Amino acid sequence: MLDTQLTTSLSYKLFRADQVRENERLAAEKSGCNMFTLMLRAGEAVFRQCQLLLPHAERYLVLVGHGNNAGDGYIAALQAKKAGKQVHVCAVEPQRKLEGDAGEAQKRWREGGGQVEAFSAAVLEDASLVIDALLGTGISSSIRNEFADIIDAVNAAEKPVVSVDVPSGLDANTGQSLGRCVEASVTVTFVGIKPGLTTGAGKQSCGTLVYEDLGIGRAFSELARSSATLLDIEQFRSMGPRDVHSHKGTYGRLLCVGGNKGTAGAIRLSSEAALRSGAGMVRVFVHEGSTVQVSAGRPELMVTDEKLEEALKWATCVVIGPGLGQDEWGEQVFTTVMKHCQAHPKPMVIDADALNLLGKQSTAYTINDCILTPHAGEAARLLGVSVEDVESERFNYARQCSQRYHATCVLKGAGTIIDNESKTWVCRHGNPGMATAGSGDVLSGILGALLAQGLDKDTASTYGVTLHGKAGDEVARLHGQRGMIASDLFDSVRVLINQ
């Protein structure tokens, strides 16, 4: 049985931006320091990441706004200047005198011989590296034009960018761009990792995410309750050795349902992924026009196009959806499977076209032990909203989906989210090379296999998504992202699940 390693490390916890703002001062006091000390540590951490990103960069451009984010930027600028770098600090309002801790940081920059100037294309062109300290986590509405113009120029210049706490223009909680958003190379986030940096467009915008607790992590964790947990393959120890006297029936009887005429590939990928993930026996129910395509080359799969009810009685777990279609055959098969599993409860994974059919009949079925695996488009149809709505608030709609269907929702995409109505997880693994036909079918097979082997729904969904993402990362590491196909994941999945 899989052994999960529980961790209290803040590097695996997500906290909303307001949680950080409300608790960091008290956490600092409990840790024996003040807020300006945190600002000094933050600025030093940003400069440290700049050196790691581009060790030989000599010309720094630091973009600052008006808040504490700007104070971090001034400290980073001062560190760079002390290290002998040529540093330009540009502000939207160069003559504006900042207050509080940010004002003290600005004062130290000027006392150290630094100047504050207006932004210009010439300064940007001359820079080797940009530090983005324009806007912090406090913004929640569309940004002003003067900031938008600078962000546009920075993105167009394609310079290496290190963002302070959050890329300017990004909603730190949702990952939504607030009109414009810096596309950073590295984002150094402080005290608590903000959820918007880990999923969807936010994950793209922040580049490499670096976490710094600024020395107050322990105190902060005692004050704030995390909103979600980041998943890493290292959190899952292993499934353990198999018993010597076990047999194929010990590891589950999985039925994979789909493969309408002309769409055999999806269910073949799903069912073979289930075999590679350790399911003892895998039976596949398909359209009569797909039996040869699914069984050819993989004799270990038991393929049938008849006696669905018998196959359902045989199964201890069901995956339905890959290649199912939404025509008359697909609808009939869907209805038969759902009615059987409602009357005879067993774990289910509902994917692809089965999700679309479920959305049309959302009040007809309640399956207690169920994992839904929508991408943004399928989630939008399940909830009756737009794709843009889902992508702008992925955490919110993953929770809505799990609550509406009383199931675990796996909202696929960059930073896949798993939500079980009360808890939320985000997978840190995965890469753009996995944006290829059949990748989701492989995931549904992995999830089905883990359920069939006796893992509970939460463990199967979190481990399965993490296993799938890490397998994709391993393929990309060995062969690159471009040209990756779904079946490339099989060997990596098999290696990882045996570690």
From TrEMBL:
GO molecular function terms noted in the UniProt entry: ADP-dependent NAD(P)H-hydrate dehydratase activity; ATP binding; metal ion binding; NAD(P)HX epimerase activity
InterPro entries: Carbohydrate_kinase_pred_CS, CARKD, Nnr, Ribokinase-like, YjeF_N_dom, YjeF_N_dom_sf
Keyword Repressor part of the UniProt annotation: no
Cofactor, how bound (note): Binds 1 potassium ion per subunit.
Ligand binding (K(+)): N69, D132, S168
Stretches assigned to the YjeF C-terminal domain: 231-499
Protein residues bound to (6S)-NADPHX: G136, T137, G138, I139, S140, S141, S142, D165, A266, G323, H375, D441
EC number: 4.2.1.136, 5.1.99.6
Catalytic activity reported: (6S)-NADPHX + ADP = AMP + phosphate + NADPH + H(+); (6S)-NADHX + ADP = AMP + phosphate + NADH + H(+); (6R)-NADHX = (6S)-NADHX; (6R)-NADPHX = (6S)-NADPHX
Matches recorded under Gene3D superfamilies: 3.40.1190.20, YjeF N-terminal domain
Cofactor: Mg(2+); K(+)
Domain YjeF N-terminal, first and last residues per copy: 20-222
Annotated positions binding AMP: K412, G413, A414, G415, T416, G440
Subunit: Homotetramer.
HAMAP family: NADHX_dehydratase (MF_01965), NADHX_epimerase (MF_01966)
Protein name: Bifunctional NAD(P)H-hydrate repair enzyme
Organism in which the protein naturally occurs: Alteromonas pelagimontana
Gene designation: nnrD
